[in-house]
Design a protein that fits this description.
Largest sheet of chain B: 5 strands, antiparallel
Order of helices and strands of chain A: EEEEEEHHEEEEHHEE
Number of helices of chain A: 4
Distance between the termini of chain B: 57 Å
Radius of gyration of chain A: 17 Å
Strand content of chain B: 25-35%
Strand order of the largest sheet of chain A: 10-1-2-11-12
Strand order of the largest sheet of chain B: 10-1-2-11-12
Order of helices and strands of chain B: HEEEEEEHHEEEEHHEE
Radius of gyration of chain B: 28 Å
Structural class of chain A: alpha+beta
Oligomer: heterodimer
Helix content of chain A: 25-40%
Subcellular location (chain A): Cytoplasm; Nucleus
Largest interface: A-B, 26 and 27 residues
Distance between the termini of chain A: 45 Å
Number of strands of chain A: 12
Shape of chain B: elongated
Keywords (chain A): Cytoplasm, Nucleus, Proteasome
Largest sheet of chain A: 5 strands, antiparallel
Family (chain A): Belongs to the peptidase T1B family.
Structural class of chain B: alpha+beta
Shape of chain A: globular
Number of helices of chain B: 5
InterPro entries (chain A): Ntn_hydrolases_N (IPR029055), Proteasome_bsu_CS (IPR016050), Proteasome_sua/b (IPR001353), Proteasome_suB-type (IPR023333)
Subunit structure (chain A): Component of the proteasome complex.
Chain lengths: 223, 273
Amino acid sequence: MTKQQANWSPYDNNGGTCVAIAGTDYCVIAADTRMSSGYNILTRDYSKIIQLVDTSVLASSGFQADVRALQKVLAAKHLQYQYQHNKQMSCPAMAQLLSNTLYYKRFFPYYAFNVLGGLDREGKGCVFTYDAVGSYERVGYSSQGSGSTLITPFLDNQLKSPGPLLLPARDAVTPLSESEAIDLVKTCFASATERDIYTGDKLEILILNASGTRVEYMELRKD
Amino acid sequence: MSREAMEMPPKGGFSFDLCKRNDMLVKKGLKEPSFLKTGTTIVGLIFKDGVILGADTRATEGPIVADKNCEKIHYMAPNIYCCGAGTAADTEAVTDMVSSQLKLHRYHTGRESRVVTALSLLKSHLFSYQGYVSAALVLGGVDVTGPHLHTIYPHGSTDTLPFATMGSGSLAAMAVFESKYREGLTRDEGVKLVSEAICSGIFNDLGSGSNVDICVITKGAKEYLRNHMLPNPRTYISEKGYSFSKKTEVLRTKITPLREMVEVIEGGDAMEE
């Protein structure tokens, strides 16, 4: 007697890739703008990135309905925090909040693969990477989504992150300049687009630094 | 174990002996090996002087592009070409096999091959494999009886049509054909329409992509236009380039001698009890 299988799934995967790189005084967060379902393109112009705080930017790939719901929950919680504490949340605080929010739905998860990027209270770049149920880690760079398997080995090679267990603890942020990091991100996405069918159309890059937030766009292959 | 267990599988067809064992392994959690599918948009249309075939050039393995510029328009005979969608190995094997059979037939009969011959050979082969040879084909050519265009499905059924599309991008391409096709197109109009249909598949279907290949077949002549259109150049190449260190980093070197050097003293009492 074989176990009964569900003939309907509450989840769908809308594809896409997200990347974030932390620098000494900046943070670069990027994602493509293609939203797909199966072999079809739903739209070529959908932003996966949201700026929750001046110093915290969330990029999420996966099931965009869950991503949108998650973004709204975080924005609401941040508003409450501002009322209660009379200040904006720091990036590490937002990181913990995101982890707790994801684990809250441990038994019916948000199908969202998140990368949180921003500046910590000292102005240094920080990147936090998550799985679907809230396990997170602060890292120097990260990639999530359908193209992550193509991008991560390249970033490992170029950014050579120090091991997390080294003593004395070494800084995970890259010594690259802001423009070099942006160049690296553009190359990553142009390459991932060549080989991943779910990545393409347009690239949206958010750059956070002491002077504020800047956004750049780049065209990607549309096939 | 009875002696019959060592017999060879019956001649021809597939041997399904390992299916039960494969099912058991999948239930235990083993991932089945994937095969290279061509995703694909392939089209054909009949114009005033003959047949035009078109295809995209992307081959996929699941969500990854395995080949950015593969050839999906296969040679069957000097006057017959065949586009293939489905499992890449199957389309290659079946078109090569029928192409060889057609050549032998040409030697035997002393005549130019006919499209219906290729059609019969392909459909009977695919039918005998009951759909397990996953090849969906668009066959086109011009012979003594005129221009012909056929579609062949993996189970062995065929259609004869003035314009046809197959593959995951077939709906995108057919939308273009149904809007703009008319009888008696000129060569340039036909090539333009086929390119538009393939581009529609390339941009709207994720299983199709990269470039457009075209083949124009007319009475007594054929033009194979490989990469007729390249609408997808790489969008960004870093000016400064990237360097990759040539060797793996040496983190630590330690030499352990395997055998100690022992001094042998001549004439000594070595092996005393």
